[in-house]
Design goal:
With about 280 residues, this protein is of the alpha+beta class. About 15% of the residues lie in helices and about 25% in strands. It contains 5 helices and 15 strands. The strands form 2 sheets. Strands 2, 3, 4, 5, 6, 7, 9, 10, 11, 12, 13, 14 and 15 form a 13-stranded mixed beta sheet that branches. A two-stranded parallel sheet has the order 1-8. Strand 6 and strand 7 form a beta hairpin. It binds zinc ion. Zinc ion binds next to strand 7.
């Protein structure tokens, strides 16, 4: 089966949410996300610079339950909250972040590392403000978007995340929006942002355009089971709907790599040594 057919078959199996029902137009088709990151196949690139992340908490505006996830939205009319460096040539503006999570702690992330699943994954979405003037324009173009992915693991309570968790009951139903100010998205990044994988891929929700430079952090962050439980108390459904559906398993199925290379900003020596240990 060729790459494109495999993806179609995978998409066909995803029937848990209305977003994935009905005809989907997948533009291109062989640079789709998410993927499994195979550590021993990733290629160390010494040219990959550290990321330059400069977020202004004052650009934080609101939280919105869009019926698939909750979006923390930022004012992106100026270059006040930006991402530069790493694999990027241009300046990218932060417009929103959101998460994907499972119904249990055993799965929920979109990307995986050597098939390892995490209970949730954070996506910080940025668009290229050097080349484009609006998100809607950038989303259709190559190098239009840069998304940072961060894996969440269950452990200690995350103090930074708690302000967000406390706001979630107010947006339990689909389409509800509340004002949300002065949230520093940088508090959700791992302490080490120098080590990451990067590859060219797509949005994991429609329009699925292949406009994304993915930057997936090697280091995860820790959140408590109770914090994730509040994510799971959100609803896919609006207040008017008779049957309410819990917002869980809001991730896309994995896509084929189709010959792409995943580059790493760090040397894979340690992983290689560990791999050896297991085979002997
Ligand atoms: Zn996402």
């Amino acid at each position: 089966m060729d790459c494109f057919k495999m993806q179609e078959a995978a998409e066909h199996n995803m029937k848990m949410h209305p977003m994935w029902q009905g005809p989907l137009t997948v533009p291109g088709g062989d640079h789709q996300s998410p993927i499994d990151i195979v550590v021993r196949k990733s290629v160390f690139d010494s040219e990959l610079k550290p990321l330059v992340i400069d977020y202004d908490p004052k650009t934080c505006q609101q939280i919105w339950n869009n019926g698939y996830s909750f979006l923390v939205e930022y004012d992106d009319t100026t270059d006040k909250s930006t991402l530069k460096g790493g694999p990027l040539q241009d300046t990218y503006r932060l417009c929103q972040f959101h998460f994907h999570w499972g119904e249990s702690n055993a799965w929920g992330s979109e990307h995986t590392v050597d098939r390892r699943l995490f209970p949730a994954e954070l996506h910080l979405v940025h668009w290229n403000s050097d080349k484009y003037s609006l998100f809607e324009e950038a989303v259709m173009e190559e190098n239009g978007l840069a998304v940072i992915g961060v894996f969440l693991k269950v452990g200690k309570r995350h103090e930074g995340l708690q302000k967000l968790v406390d706001a979630l009951p107010a947006i339990r139903h689909k389409s509800s929006v509340v004002e949300f100010n002065r949230f520093d998205a940088a508090c959700l990044l791992p302490t080490n942002t120098d080590d990451y994988w990067t590859y060219h891929g797509s949005l994991t929700t429609p329009p699925l355009t292949e406009s994304v430079s993915w930057i997936v952090m090697k280091q995860h962050i820790e959140v408590s089971h109770d914090q994730l439980a509040v994510f799971r108390s959100l609803l896919f459904t609006s207040a008017e709907e008779e049957v309410q559906k819990s917002m869980v398993n809001n991730f896309r199925v994995q896509q084929s790599l189709c010959g792409r290379t995943v580059r790493s900003s760090f040397t894979p020596f340690l992983q290689a040594a560990e791999g050896k240990k297991h085979t002997h």
